[in-house]
Amino acid sequence: MKSELDNIEVRPARRQFLKAGAALAGGLIAPGVFLMKTGQARAPDEPASASKRWGMLIDSNLLDESDADACVSACQRENGWKDNGRPEIDAQWIRKVKLTDNQTGQQKFLPMMCLHCENPPCVDVCPTGASFKRADGIVLVNKHTCIGCRYCMIACPYNARSFIHENLKDQLPVAPRGKGTVESCTLCVHRIDRDGENAVPACAEAVNRNDHKPILFGDLNDPNSEISIRVSELEGSQLRAELGTSPSVHFVGI
Questions:
Q1: For residue 102, what are the contacts with CB-CB under 8 A and spacing of at least 6?
Q2: What confidence tens digit (pLDDT) does each residue in 47-70 have?
Q3: DSSP codes, 143-155
Q4: Measured distance CA(214)–CA(204) in Å, rounded
Q5: Domain boundaries in the chain?
Q6: Which candidate, 224, 2, 251, places its Cα nearest to that of 104?
Q7: What is the pLDDT of residues 67-112, one digit of tens each?
Q8: Domain 4-36+49-252: CATH architecture, name and number where available
């Protein structure tokens, strides 16, 4: 199965190189950084718990192109970003990826987003700590400490991050964004902090219907959770597992 992800070049020395340059980047401030005042959905005295590891299982056998489009549209509405038709610089919170079987020509369409890795290279290379992983496994960007160096974009093997080039307006309190900073999927963290195990990310909500659940969300640390059982039953796989990033988003049928 061939996709655009096969064209990503992975250099083992990249992480070490970027770490070496972190001290230099730490003294640079990205020009034109404009930040919006942020709210905090989770109370300061209620930290994320390491007992949880939130993740998703995406079954490509149950998704069609319209489902992938619905995921993108739902994410845009939920988080207040838009596609301006410029794939090289537009937001990459979530995007539609086409997979083609080289032997049969069969095509599949998947939503692709930040995979919230257990060992996130974006966090390793960030010189300011703006890229960080919460105790519950969600990988985020602190817009107040991001300097726009874009090291994390280079380090991410999934092309899951993007840089904000333009002035922004009409932002949503649940998804603060800022010109001159990097952004990516948050797994709808505001829903998770509000609803806990009952949370459903916007992309999953857009395509799940009754017993038809192409996208499952839940706690991967709980062996009795629906997502853990399904990952085991369906032999869900991690994208580019050989890299050792151990994503929290698993896939079936690719």
A1: 1, 2
A2: 788 999 999 999 999 999 999 999
A3: TTT-----HHHHH
A4: 8
A5: 4-36+49-252
A6: 2
A7: 999 999 999 999 999 888 888 888 989 999 999 988 888 899 999 9
A8: 2-Layer Sandwich (3.30)
Answer whether 117's CB lies under 8 Å from 139's CB. Answer: yes
Whether this prediction's pTM lies above 0.90 is answered by no
C-alpha dihedral, 130 to 243 to 107 to 77, nearest 10°: -10
Q: Give the SS3 label for residue 3.
A: coil
Residue with tokens 């603060």: 176
For residue 108, give the amino acid letter. K
Q: Phi first, then psi: what are they for 123, rounded to 5°? A: -75, -40
Q: Which two tokens stand for residue 40?
A: 């905090």
* Longest CA–CA separation in the chain, Å: 55
Q: Which residues are paired to 216 by β-bridges?
A: 57
* 119 C-beta neighbours (distance < 10 Å), count: 12
**DSSP run (H or E) holding 1:** none
Taken in order 15, 182, 254, 55, the sign of the CA dihedral is positive
Q: Which two tokens stand for residue 9?
A: 């070049």
